[in-house]
Structures are given as C-alpha cells and as structure tokens.
Design a protein that fits this description.
Layout lengths: L5 E4 L1 H11 L3 H6 L2 E4 L1 H9 L7 H6 L4 E2 L8 H6 L2 H13 L3 E3 L3 H9 L3 E3 L1 H10 L6 H10 L6 H10 L11
Parallel strand pairs: 1-2, 1-4, 2-3, 4-5
Helix pairs in contact: 1-9, 3-6
Length: 172
C-alpha cells in the first residue's frame, strides 16, 4: 500500500500524539499536507479543563487549518460528532484519501465514504517504521496518563508491531 502523503486529522489523534510525544512534528515528517477542519481546531483551542495540547497545536504553523466552518452533509452531521463529521467532509471536499480518526463510529463512516484510515497508534507505528526513535511503550503510557483510552488489543498490537512486545509484562 502506498504511503499517504496527505491526511485530514481529528481532535482525538492530535491530543493523543501530543500526549505520546509532547509535540506534533511527527505529522510534518510523515505527510506533505496535514489538514485540520475549522471545527477540529475550535475543539482543540477550547481545550477542556486542562487546556492540554493547545501550545503544541498553535506552534505547528505548518498545519493547514481551515479558517471557516464546513458545510457538512446531513448524513455526516446526524451520524457523528462535529469533529469526525468535519474530518470526513473536508477529506471528501479536498479529495484527500486518508483520514486520522480514533473513534469506532467515525472509522465506520469513513470506510463507507471509501476513505483510508489511520489513527494515533497507526501514525506512531508508521513513524517507527520510517526510522523515528521513541519508545512505543512510553508513548502509550503517556497517552493513557492523559486519559486517552486504548484497548488491550490495540496496545498489544502496537507493542508487537513496534518490536516492543513480548517482554513478559502485562500490557494493561
């Protein structure tokens, strides 16, 4: 499968990547274009109670952040939360084939729209394959410390694929 050169990314993966690595430059290294819908940018900039990931997001001046809200199809807006719906709509509008969504419902709808998928762990695995040096186990732990939920299946898959599995530890 050819490596995606451009991607539209959702709020959850942005927060997860900042939690995992402390920054977003990995996206710049992996993709020529990283598109962020207006709706996703607003979710991040509101920041919740912890204001987490705002500095890293605002410093990533290479992100292509949409300046205006999207006109989202009724099907998407009725099926998904605003962030996921806007990611899929922007990908369709801009003819970007790959989206980064972690939530199951968003992933299903993206598939229905013939989009390729990755998630925060998929981006970390691609980065490892392309020579970036970091501990997957530490990245996962940092994600969990920030409240990012990962299933045991995803954790074990990520550790195995990154060559860090099978260390005789319980992986949560």
């Amino acid at each position: 499968m050819p490596k995606a050169k451009e991607i539209v990314i959702n709020t959850g993966p942005i927060i997860a990547l900042v939690a995992a690595l402390g920054e977003l430059t990995i996206l710049k290294d992996l993709y020529n274009r990283v598109l962020v819908p207006y709706e996703v940018a607003q979710e991040i900039l509101v920041g919740g109670s912890k204001q987490f990931a705002i500095p890293q997001f605002t410093q990533a001046n290479w992100l292509q952040i949409w300046a205006v809200p999207l006109e989202i199809s009724p099907f998407l807006s009725n099926s998904l939360d605003l962030g996921e719906a806007s990611v899929i709509q922007l990908a369709i509008n801009e003819k970007v084939n790959t989206v980064c969504i972690d939530e199951a419902a968003g992933r299903r709808v993206a598939r229905l729209n013939n989009l390729s998928l990755t998630g925060s762990v998929g981006i970390l695995l691609r980065a490892k394959r392309e020579g970036h040096s970091f501990s997957m186990e530490t990245a996962i732990q940092r994600m969990q410390d920030q409240g990012v939920w990962l299933s045991n299946t995803v954790i074990n898959f990520a550790l195995a694929q990154s060559g860090e599995g099978g260390k005789g530890k319980d992986n949560h």
